[in-house]
Amino acid sequence: MSSKRESLFQETQRLRLGDYIQRSTVNNRDLKYGVEYIVGVSNDGKFTAPKGNPTNVDLKPYKIVSNGAFVYNPSRLDLGSIAYRTDGLCIVSHLYVVFYLNEQGRRRIIPEYLFMYLRRKEFYREVSFRNFGSQRPEFNFHDISEILIPLPDISIQQKYVSVYNAMLANQRVYKSGLEDLKLTCDAYIDKLRHELPHEAIGNYITQIDARNTIGLQVDAVRGLAVSKGIIPTKAKMKGVSLTNYKVVPSGAIAYVSDTSRRGDKMSLGYNNTDEPFLVSSISTVFSTDKDVLLPEYLMLFFCRSEFDRYSRFHSWGSARETFNWSDMCDVKIPVPDIKIQQYIVNIYTVYQLRREINEQLKAQIKDICPILIKGSIEEATNA
């Protein structure tokens, strides 16, 4: 394509977005909608439950959002905080900007196409560029109205929106099966909790106090997360001696006994790799008798919210409350036959694998937006 033709395409097809959208400031002044309607917008382009406690919040200034609305956080648009509503009426903070396609916009633009355009890193960079120099950058409705967008013919838009929607549908079906697996696993555990006697796990676990005498380096250092995982350390390790760090061998579990500053959750993780890791000397490391108690089965109980509540309630101390080794040994769970444990673990392993695939699908959907937009523009240019 010649530069002259490309220039002609840009001049004739790049249109001011503000000519096709209208802002909505309709609020909840009659208090028709309660806290159960409140949602926020995440950087992933999703509507999410509110993070804070909405009790006693004045809901009158909250904006009413219906299907077909675009909602974004003007202070975080450069990070991707924009969503398109398709799941029914909701209300959002008065700080959000809400807009819809106007009559002309509905004739000229497919809303999912516009959402794809606004969900690209290129658009976020443009937002950052336009906000450059502002003390508290906010990309308001006037700013987004001035955006110039290339608009292919609506038939071309539909072609690429169909690809996008097909990927979304595939991911949603996959997610639905994912939730079924999780439900099956949780239901099986609840069944065991009610049908079998509970035994103290202290009968089947052994503490490990192996220090780093095998010369593991800083790349082996890990942290323990309240989400129940072993993660790359966030600590500054420059100049830190690793000789006193504890070794977490393959198949072992480690936890931090201090529960007082972790949001009522225990930092804990299981080494499901073939490599040993290092954790801080304040951590407790232990293994299970795998002929009687599988560590993966035990982790299913550790990952439940009931265990966090239990460990927090049984933590003791003054300035710092801890759930020590004897407290851990006193934890009681149903211990079925090892074959049943393996069956439950297998279900959960499939669930984790499918969850990872689901996250990959979501990432692909996000990454496909700039590709689809680029393809649609090139097709329109070459038409």
Short description:
The protein is α+β, with helices and mostly antiparallel strands and 383 residues long.
Please explain how this structure is put together:
The chain has helices at about 5-15, 105-110, 110-120, 120-130, 140-145, 155-195, 295-300, 305-315, 325-330, 340-380, and strands at about 15, 20-25, 40, 45-50, 65, 70, 80-85, 90, 95-100, 150, 200, 205-210, 220-225, 230, 245-250, 255, 270, 275-280, 285-290, 330-335. The chain has about 375 residues and is of the alpha+beta class. It has two domains: about 5-150, DNA methylase specificity domains (Adenine-n6-DNA-methyltransferase TaqI, Chain A, domain 2, Alpha-Beta Complex), CATH 3.90.220.20; about 195-335, DNA methylase specificity domains (Adenine-n6-DNA-methyltransferase TaqI, Chain A, domain 2), CATH 3.90.220. The protein is elongated.
